[in-house]
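User: Okay, second chain of the day. Same drill as before: sequence in, structure tokens out.
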Amino acid sequence: MKKIIIDYNDDNKKISTFLTGKFPNLNVNAVYKALRKKDIKLNDKRINSNEILHTNDVLVVYISDDILNGINPNINIPIVYEDDNIVVFNKPSDLEVVGDNSLTSIMKNNFSFLEPCHRIDRNTLGLVLYAKNADSLNILLDKFKNHEIEKHYIACCYGHAKKCDNLSAYLFKDSKKSLVYISDVPKKHYSKIQTSYKLIDYNADSNLSLLDITLHTGKTHQIRAHLAHCSLPIIGDGKYGSYELNKRFKVYSQLLCSYSLSFNFHTDAGLLNYLNGKTISLKDLPFNLLF
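Assistant: Same drill. Structure tokens below.
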């Protein structure tokens, strides 16, 4: 059950439009089914029609979390690396790292202690590092904070990228809209960001570039927004990319993957010193079929 108070951004939206926007993996047919069964209450009244919502309306939805989030709790999540202190999962798309029906909530059932050391977007594929004990968690959080763990991403973008580039800009996060904005010049409340990439491959026929990306700052949606700002939108990105391009390539989930983690400790890592110099990566580069 979810109770939601409608804010001004969603005024005049139909229930089906609002719910499928709030829960991107929710099938609209599930909304209509819930309406038919009167499993949706609007302002304390059970309804069976697709009503228009208004600011401050109270919507109560009796749809299971699995259906709302489109998550299968029995989903196969590969382990890429594991030892006594850490485990690295290969997260599929359409799955949050934390929250209800997330990678963390699903996999916690298999471990006595399991906490994520970083996050990637719901629609980003790839490696997520977890600690299997409190000491390891504290060490790894500190190492991420001090940039002693290097993350690499693969992205498939539209446009002919340079052989390599080091991009700098400024980012503002609008939490209410769940969007970030990029500026080439400093502005109030904007944070400086840096994103570098190397060109892996280019398909001239489709004008697609496959990039190896390094994050030097870890802001929300940084890669997606920064590349789009530089006229290299990620294929399948529904928020910062191009609807027309996504439709043309028939891709509706962003082609962005966290594929490599390197441990480059400059200071003592205690019980995790054995990881220093180690790289954990996916065996196969994603998105190669497009090149």
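The longest helix spans residues 134-145.

User: Thanks, on to the next one.
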